[in-house]
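FAQ: What does the model actually see?

It sees only this:
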Amino acid sequence: MEEEKQAQELNNNDFEKENTKPVNRKKTIGLVFLVLLISIIVFVVIFNLNDFNSTIDEMKKLNASYLGWAGLCIVLYLALWPLSLCLIAKVNKTKAKFIDSYLIGGSEHFFNAITPFASGGQPIQGVLYYQDGVNAAESTGIIMANFIAFLISTNVFAVASLFYYGRFSVNFTDATRWMIILGFVMNLFTLFFIILMSTCKAITNFFTKCLKGLSKIKYIGKYIEKGIPTFEKYCDNAQAAFKQIISHKWSFVGAVLLRGISLVFYYATPFYILKAMDLNIAFVELPFIMLASSFAITTMVWVPTPGGMGGIEFAFTTIFATFAGVTQSKALTGMVCWRFLTYYLLMILSFIMYVIFMIILKKRKKRNDQRLINRG
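And it is asked to produce this:
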C-alpha cells in the first residue's frame, strides 16, 4: 500500500513537470512572427477592399487628445485586470506573493495574443505559478476560478448587448448572420463547460473513460495508460482547489466585479476613438458604444486566429459603420486605431509584465542560492 502511494506521488510529480515546462523561447518568438505575418496579410486585404487614401486622410485628422484618453483606457484596463487573480490567489493562501500574481495576471494578454482562440494565457499562468512554487493542481483551481469570473462578466455584457441586436446586426447579411449566433453560443458554452469541468466529477470521469478507450489503441496506448491515474488525481486536486475558492462566495463575487470594472475601460476605448474622429457623440452614448464593442468581440470569439485576427476587424468595421456620421473610411480608421491599442499596445505592455516577473524570479532564486551557500 505504501509503495502504491509513493508510486502515485512520483507519477503526480512527473505529470506536473511534463505539463509545467518553462516557456519555450523559440516557440514564442515563432508565434510572434506568425502574428506579425497574419497582421500584414489582414491589413493588406482590408486596405485593398477599401479606399486607402481616404483612410490615411482620416487618420491625419485624428484628435490626439481623445486618442490619449483611449490609450489611458487600455492602460487602466491592464492595471485592473490582474486584481481578480490576486484576490482569488489570496483567498486560496498560495505561496505566491501579491506582486507575483499581479504580474502573472498581466502576462496573460501577451500569450493570448499569440495563440489560436486566445487560448495560451491560462496554461502559461499555470506554468508561471509552478515556477513560483505553487503546485499545478492548486494553480489550476485558481486560474479556472479567475477564468470563470471573466466569462461571467463578459457574458453579462454580451447578453446586455442583445437588447440592441437589431441595430448592431443591420449590416450583417443572411450569409454572415450565422457568425453572430456562433459567437454568442460559443461564449455561453465555454462558460458552462468550464464550470462543469471545475465542479462536476461526472465530466472528469467521462474524459477518463475516453482516455481509457484511447489507451486500448496499440500504438498510443502505452503513452496514455500510465498517465491516467495521475490525470484523475490531478483533476480531483484541481476541483478541490476550485471548490475551496468558490466557498468564499463574496471574494468570488468581488473577482467577478473586478473583471467587470476592467472590461468597462476596455469596452469604452472605441468611444474615445470615435470622439477623436470629431464625430458628434455625446457622453450619454458611452454605455451604448460599450455594448457595441462587446457585441463585436463576442460575435468573433470563434475565429481561430491569434486574437481573432481577421474576424474582429470585420465585425468592428461592420457594426460601427451603423453609427451616425460614420462613413466606411471612418469606420476603418476607427478599427485600425482600436486594434492597435487593444491588441498590439496591450500585447507589448503585457510582455513587459512577463519580463519583469521573470527578472524577479531569477533574482529571488539567486538570493536563495546564495543563502544556501552561506549556510553551507
